[in-house]
Amino acid sequence: xxxxxxxxxxxxxxxxxxxxxxxxxxxxxxxxxxxxxxxxxxxxxxxxxxxxxxxxxxxxxxxxxxxxxxxxxxxxxxxxxxxxxxxxxxxxxxxxxxxxxxxxxxxxxxxxxxxxxxxxxxxxxxxxxxxxxxxxxxxxxxxxxxxxxxxxxxxxxxxxxxxxxxxxxxxxxxxxxxxxxxxxxxxxxxxxxxxxxxxxxxxxxxxxxxxxxxxxxxxxxxxxxxxxxxxxxxxxxxxxxxxxxxxxxxxxxxxxxxxxxxxxxxxxxxxxxxxxxxxxx
Length: 281
What we know:
Strand order of the largest sheet: 1-7-2-5-10-11
Pfam families: AraC_binding (PF02311), HTH_18 (PF12833)
Keywords: DNA-binding, Transcription, Transcription regulation
Order of helices and strands: EEEEEEEHEEHEHHEEHHHHHHH
Number of strands: 12
Domain HTH araC/xylS-type: 183-280
Distance between the termini: 32 Å
InterPro entries: AraC-bd (IPR003313), Homeodomain-like_sf (IPR009057), HTH-like (IPR037923), HTH_AraC (IPR018060), RmlC-like_jellyroll (IPR014710)
Shape: globular
Protein name: AraC family transcriptional regulator
Structural class: alpha+beta
Oligomer: single chain
Strand content: 15-25%
Radius of gyration: 20 Å
Mean pLDDT: 87
């Protein structure tokens, strides 16, 4: 079975990185248990997320939900430069203004079947100015630096959501490449995690032979059907547990039939016990 590791660790409410790869680099499929925003600056990169592929242009904004399996593919030896923001789900949940949630842009990305927001004249926008000021704020120890960083970060998120809601200034771009046979399979899996999902069932439902489905799924997403389903179930279970559901209920509500198997798989993936999520030391 394939193994896709969680990369990046986040102990703060948010983090910002400005990364430039001068040499050609290969990335593996991975996921995070927090939100990720990537601002692409330069390079020759195709971003793969959950069976979809996007050929990036400078200043495209890539929105990756917690738990989405993804990787960039570097298509040539050109320099790959980007800025990355990691955001804690708990912090995102806490930053609400009534019914307005700052994760709306991520929700829209899912609804639009696109993870890439293209903002008109981004490099001349207030959004980009705030991002630059936010990056500078990490480099000094000015008065109330942490508070200023938080204020800038909240302004960035608010502006990002506003741009994502305005069709004249922000557009979720279409997939550069995707296989129309795989996206419905991914949707079905996501909507039926609590139910029995077998390769034979999927093959029958989507009119493919099981061997063709297995080959196509691996080719288009980078991972096997079984590994994908297991990982998605565990990620959903973890979210439910962290939101207060009992470990046993989360286990069965996410499609696991045996608690012992669930417990072993959980510890293997997250390197901690499921019960430890409820009672952290």
